[in-house]
Amino acid sequence: MEPSRRKKNLPIFLGVTLALLAYLTLQAVSIHRFGFSDDGRSADCAIVLGAAAYHNKPSPVFTERINQGIRLYQEERVKFIILTGGFGDGAPFAESEVALDYCLDQGVPREALLLETKSKHTQENLKEAKLVMDERGWKTALVVSDPWHLKRALAMAHSKGIDAQPSGTTSSRYESPKARAGFLLRELYFYHQFIFFGH
């Protein structure tokens, strides 16, 4: 490219770059704020999104999600909790089965707990939860996960016909700024992947 043309195109390149950076920054702020936007409303059920389990124990991240689901039940914002998550590679227990045992240990009655054991990721968590809801005629749900996960999760829930609102964990195991930034950047990528490609 000729120097004169390169010089002429430089402002355009810089303008596009700055606009893209501004857009991504606004989206990152939106993802962050969205996860902390629980307005206190009630729903037919809580959907606790799955996370890793270590044999028969929930991981720290999963524990916080389950605790938030229990909190919603104890506050009478929901009467039922749907626990999601299937079997990891070689795992003897489904994530939801591990969550069920944890909830029972915390005093949640068995009749308030429902689970599915087929899902492998967030889209499937919500797909299987919707089937549970449809069987019981439930329409509304509070979706429980880490705050930075919830904007994407809610977009997925709405795409499946769930009238959903967010309820982020009140304490996260992603405590360091580096861990939180990493989670946020991953969600920025995966959110746009879902918006543009549907997965």
How would you characterize the overall build of this protein?
- The protein is of the alpha/beta class.
- The strands form 2 sheets. The protein has a 5-stranded parallel beta sheet with strand order 5-4-1-6-7, sandwiched between helices. Strands 2-3 form a two-stranded antiparallel ribbon.
- It is built from 6 helices and 7 strands.
- The chain has one domain: 3-Layer(aba) Sandwich (Rossmann fold).
- Helix content is 52%, strand content 13%.
- The chain has helices at 3-34, 60-74, 95-105, 122-136, 150-159, 177-197; strands at residues 45-48, 53-54, 57-58, 81-83, 113-115, 140-145, 163-168.
- α1 (3-34) packs across α6 and α5 packs parallel to α6.
- β2 and β3 (57-58) form a beta hairpin.
In short:
The protein is of the alpha/beta class. It contains 6 helices and 7 strands; from the N terminus they run H-E-E-E-H-E-H-E-H-E-H-E-H.
Number of domains: 1
| Overall pLDDT score | 91
The CATH class assignment is: Alpha Beta
Question: What's the architecture, going by CATH?
Answer: 3-Layer(aba) Sandwich
Strand order of the largest sheet: 5-4-1-6-7
**CA distance, first residue to last residue:** 39 Å
Shape field: elongated
Number of beta-strand segments: 7
- Over all CA atoms, what is the radius of gyration? 20 Å
| Name of the CATH superfamily | HUPs
Low-pLDDT stretches: none
